[in-house]
């Protein structure tokens, strides 16, 4: 089955994070502290730096992550 | 009474700290570790400012300080500063602090913004649910600050706050609590148990448990059970989920929304479209940097500095006649020491204080707007090609002001290797103490192109920094973990009070350092060049300083400045880079004649230029070396940093001089 990640989202699209187990532990913990966690509602605001960085919004907070991390955050495909 | 100020980054902690503390008391060390901390005095006691953190469980050096202080610092209560506009995220930290069980007051900051966005918080209800005092306030409008001070006066022992973490985790908590050395303090032990389960490994360095192996086993078993029963994907994740559920309930109960139109957000996103644009954004960044530069050196700074220079020219003859009235001889030793030594040396540095002040002021303003976060994002992709990280840009830009706080600012970089790499290249960023060197030499040799010549120093510094980072990341610092995640705060108009205060602090620091180091340095220096092996030196070519300088001079011959005078000012400059200028003025004969003496000694512009480049790169000053050691706790690394910068400086100056003389 093909999983959908934040990398595959459209600008403005909103969805729920369902899995982050692909990330290494340290990074995942760091993300958790910022509210990036399974079950969180996430919205893609835009991509910058020639699609290298992803700006997402969770709980009203804008957060900037790299593409390689965005790829590892699996979201619900709706 | 002493209180710890704790909160997420960017919640207005410094603003509140500045508002509340009447006098900025002192900078000391945190209990246990040697990191500078800010302590402010207020009506009922002291406030201790801690770095912003998202969690008690540290994932960067900065956050480790919070855990450490909670356990080891001596205090009567905690002030948890919360950004009321981002309640959901902020409350995760609050819960960890509430569980800790010490007296606590929660300060809901940014109430003005919350009201603007059409929301309202039921503070009474929140306070009841969290079993702690809650105060709504705004550091911007100053509303509620008085209430907070009032609350602090009578903050007492609190009702304990407990969150239920489900059967599996609760069982593990029980078991862990049984292993604690001091079984009496229930709340603390529960907190410790939860922290351990959360993966706060640092906590185990601070407490003793009866059976460390058993602890590990319990954590492992609990994690396995969590995954097996599909509670969550990890133990930390499970704990996070329970907290989030609690917070979401709380949020729904205590927060009401009147209008959902959020204007600020729209404006923000519109601005960001330009600021973070890959090409336009980059030019905006360059424009901002150049503006800072020209404001500091060309437009404003120069005029004020010239005025101060003239003031000194007035003072020196005055001091001279004053000393004569006191009975000092015209050519006596005392006259010589004070006029040609201390006064001349001090003035050489003090004339640059206005420029440095302007630089600090502009940096503080820019930091206050939230622009640096955008720069960090924009440059992340570029900097990651050099083995760095977008976050390195804040320390690097701070380094233009002073290398010492810049090295401390690297604490926010989570990856150890990226952090060390950033520390290594910060000394190449041209700090304000180097301004006097450029100013002096550029005005003698490059009168017409002063601004361009000085600008080139900054460019050379930056290029060398990036190139070194590249070389190091390909050799010694391979395989960084490469993590980057950044919260983007909304744009804000920086508060005048904060900016003013920060500038004042940094400037006072500079003047104090200049005062101490330079006064002492000048006196020692003056004696070294006044005395020689045969008593009072007849000419300064036979002084002690000349002997020392002559020893090193041949080393600098290929760089174009192999004179003992240049060599000894560089040696002295290791103490503090301002001293390079001070010592040149003293060595070259004091106030009135040095300019001409310098001209004849360096001969050409190209050797003066090479000297400027060498002063820029050659060694971090003593204070910077000290802070590198303090931050890395490694003597080897510190020595490496010193050796590395020296070698790079030598190579670059060598190339510049050797290539330069081909064309002249
Ligand atoms: N509107 C508004 N802005 C605030 C308030 N408190 C702080 N700020 C701004 O928020 C930004 C971050 O504040 P600062 O004190 O540096 O936060 P720290 O990182 O937590 O120390 C600054 O631009 C402040 O001017 C407030 O109550 N209302």
Mean pLDDT figure of chain A: 88
Largest interface: A-B, 37 and 35 residues
Q: In the CATH hierarchy, what is the class of chain A? A: Mainly Beta
What binds here, in terms of ligands, is: guanosine-5'-diphosphate
CATH fold field value of chain A: SH3 type barrels
Reconstruct the topology from this structure.
The complex is a heterodimer of chains A (78) and B (664).
Chain A: E1 4-5, E2 14-19, H1 25-33, E3 41-48, E4 53-58, E5 61-66, H2 67-70, E6 74-75
Antiparallel strand pairs in A: 1-6, 2-3, 2-6, 3-4, 4-5
Chain B: E1 2-7, H1 13-20, E2 23-29, E3 36-42, E4 45-49, H2 61-72, E5 77-83, H3 87-100, E6 104-109, H4 111-116, E7 119-121, H5 123-130, E8 133-136, H6 145-153, H7 166-178, H8 186-198, H9 203-206, H10 212-228, H11 235-254, E9 255-257, H12 263-275, H13 280-326, H14 333-350, H15 353-369, H16 371-384, H17 393-401, H18 403-409, H19 416-425, H20 435-445, H21 450-474, E10 485-488, H22 496-530, E11 531-532, E12 535-536, H23 544-556, H24 564-573, H25 578-587, H26 594-602, H27 605-617, H28 622-632, H29 635-663
Parallel strand pairs in B: 1-4, 1-5, 5-6, 6-8
Antiparallel strand pairs in B: 2-3, 3-4, 7-9, 11-12
Helix pairs in contact in B: 3-11, 7-8, 7-10, 13-14, 13-15, 14-22, 14-25, 15-22, 17-18, 18-28, 19-21, 20-21, 20-27, 21-27, 22-25, 23-24, 24-25, 27-29, 28-29
The structure holds guanosine-5'-diphosphate (GDP).
